[in-house]
Write a structure and sequence with these properties.
The complex is a heterodimer of chains A (386) and B (139).
Chain A lengths: L7 E7 L10 H16 L8 E3 L8 H9 L5 E3 L7 H14 L5 E8 L18 H4 L7 H16 L3 H15 L13 H6 L2 E3 L2 E2 L9 E8 L1 H6 L5 E11 L13 H12 L8 E4 L4 H10 L8 H5 L18 H5 L7 H13 L13 E9 L5 E10 L1
Parallel strand pairs in A: 2-3, 2-4, 9-10
Antiparallel strand pairs in A: 1-7, 1-8, 4-7, 5-6, 8-11, 10-11
Helix pairs in contact in A: 6-10
Chain B lengths: L23 H8 L4 E4 L6 E2 L15 E4 L3 E10 L7 E8 L4 E6 L12 E8 L7 E7 L1
Antiparallel strand pairs in B: 1-2, 1-3, 4-5, 4-7, 5-6, 7-8
Classes of the chains: A alpha/beta (386), B mainly beta (139).
């Protein structure tokens, strides 16, 4: 069954905070939810489907449903890291198409800038952890650096090329009053920032921010009853890529699988896409994803992103016009929800005028969770203004 | 904090492995200087990390094999900002085929390169344990 036209994104809201010492994580989820529902012209009382991932504290979605005071008929806490909200939108559309719910709420929130109230260890039973724990894989920069090192080796990708991605994000962030980093940076400044994990420098890495966001997915009848511009889901696909029991190939991501499925469902091609939200935990994440989604040939990502090609009004493929995870926001160390939100803004014509893409009728949002090219979840959404 | 052992020129305390009934033979073999991987008698494919069933042909049982300890670096990074000083994480492609996550030790971090030949060494783990972890150094 195709999802095309079976559901709409009717509400979207990005929490304005980037530093939340005085708020709890459930509170941030609720404030994000309230904002998205208000944006749609709906309320908590209308919600009959709820979607969240591991950033929601407690027992899957049960604890949050209780906190919100809602009684969902459909619940889904699929955990694919930063890509989870895109998976949730797809699953919400499936549930709506199947008649299981009509108004689905997706929330994401967290406060990684604050000392944790508690720390839940990685499950000791996780089969991979038993063989990776001694090697201090540590934070995500290290794991993405491994993929970057191999991409450079195989294709001649350079640090300067990766830096162009941060430069483009910074050009967009300057117009976003809520962006965590608003200064426009140059390639030289990116290359002069300290090395974190070779070959990734500090400015190749996304920001760490508190906050959250939410979107509301609804049945077409509900969408038609509301007063907001209609954003139709026309393609949605997900993929799981693993280290493949020792046959790992770090040069491509799960986007190579989710992308073609989403394009096929939507019945559009790369040339039809006016704007892209590309998960940007790191610069290399964007470079590899653009290749895997077919916006350029494999290995050509470095050349594709150069010279401002991703800057709105300058290049061929405007991306992350909110400033992305690299400059604006990466709440709870997960950028998925903000990718959807900025795509919705673009399709509604509600992005900042300095970055709004003209005649933006079809947009793509892509999420990446886990470790690039290794153990990861990829999700692609293609959305159309109606 | 558990007490940490000084480990030669390798300042980062190595976390001892979490050992399950399934992985125990692997970690016990490490203590005797052997790096094991899994081989599938049904399809002939080697795999790593080791598991009971074959992830390629789904045979229910697989057998342990000992690796030669020779390999090449498939991908690596030098973590520059760790509190205990820089260290290198890598995928090493074993001579037998599988690529495994590991650390590269006793090396000039700035001279590491993809394709470089490396050989197996074992590093003691930190704390009250006799566990050792398989790592690699330039060959």
């Amino acid at each position: 069954m195709s999802l095309k036209g079976k559901a709409y994104i009717v509400g979207a809201y990005e929490h304005p905070t980037r530093n939340a010492p005085d708020k709890s994580v459930p509170q941030l989820h609720a404030e994000s939810a309230r904002g998205a529902l208000a944006d749609a012209g709906l309320s908590f009382a209308d919600v009959d489907g709820y979607f969240c991932a591991g950033d929601a504290p407690g027992f899957g979605g049960l604890s949050m449903a209780e906190y919100f005071g809602i009684r969902p008929k459909h619940i889904d806490s699929t955990e694919t890291g930063g890509s989870a909200p895109l998976v949730h939108v797809s699953h919400a559309a499936q549930a709506i198409a199947a008649g299981k719910c009509r108004v689905a709420l997706v929330t994401l929130a967290g406060r990684p800038r604050q000392p944790p109230l508690s720390r839940v260890a990685v499950s000791m039973e996780s089969p991979d952890f038993q063989f990776e724990g001694p090697y201090a894989l540590g934070g995500q920069p290290n794991q993405y650096a491994l993929a970057a090192s191999r991409h450079m080796y195989e294709f001649g990708t350079t640090s300067e090329q990766m830096a162009w991605i941060k430069v483009a994000a910074s050009h967009h962030a300057q117009w976003n009053e809520h962006a965590y980093l608003r200064d426009v940076v140059t390639v030289e400044e990116v290359l002069a920032s300290p090395m974190v994990a070779d070959p990734l420098r500090r400015m190749d890495c996304c920001v760490v921010t508190d906050g959250g966001g939410a979107v509301v997915v609804a049945h077409p009848d509900v969408a038609r009853s509301l007063k907001r511009p209609k954003v139709k889901i026309i393609g949605a696909a997900e993929a799981v890529k693993t280290v493949d029991a020792g046959k790992i190939d770090l040069t491509y991501s799960g986007a190579a699988w989710s992308g073609p499925r989403a394009f096929a469902e939507a019945g559009v091609t790369q040339a039809d896409i006016k704007y892209v939200s590309i998960y940007d935990s790191f610069t290399i994440t964007v470079l590899m994803t653009l290749e895997d989604l077919g916006f350029c040939a494999k290995g050509e990502g470095g050349r594709f992103v150069m010279d401002g090609n991703l800057i709105s009004g300058v290049g061929r493929l405007p991306f992350n016009t909110d400033g992305g995870g690299l400059c604006n926001n990466h709440p709870s160390n997960r950028g998925g929800i903000t990718k959807i939100i900025e795509a919705v803004r673009q399709l509604r014509g509600e992005a900042h005028p300095k970055v709004q893409v003209a005649n933006c009728d079809i947009a793509l949002a892509h999420g990446t969770g886990g470790s690039l090219g290794a153990r990861m979840g990829s999700a692609t959404l293609i959305l159309e203004r109606e | 904090m558990s007490e940490t052992k000084a480990v030669g020129d390798w300042p980062r305390p190595v976390s001892p492995p979490i050992v399950s009934p399934e992985s125990k033979p692997f970690w016990e073999a490490c203590k005797t200087g052997k790096l094991l991987y899994k081989h599938c008698g049904a399809c002939g494919e080697p795999h790593y990390y080791p598991r009971t069933h074959c992830p390629f042909c789904y045979a229910a049982e697989t057998e342990w094999r000992e690796a030669s300890g020779r390999g090449v670096i498939y991908a690596f990074t030098v973590v520059r900002r760790a509190p205990t000083g820089p260290y290198a994480i890598a995928y090493v492609e074993l001579e037998e085929g599988p690529r495994m996550v590991t650390n590269i030790v006793r090396c000039d971090f700035d001279a590491l390169r993809i394709g470089q030949a490396v050989r197996l060494v074992f590093q003691p783990c930190a704390g009250d344990t006799d566990a050792v972890a398989p790592m690699f150094e330039p060959a």
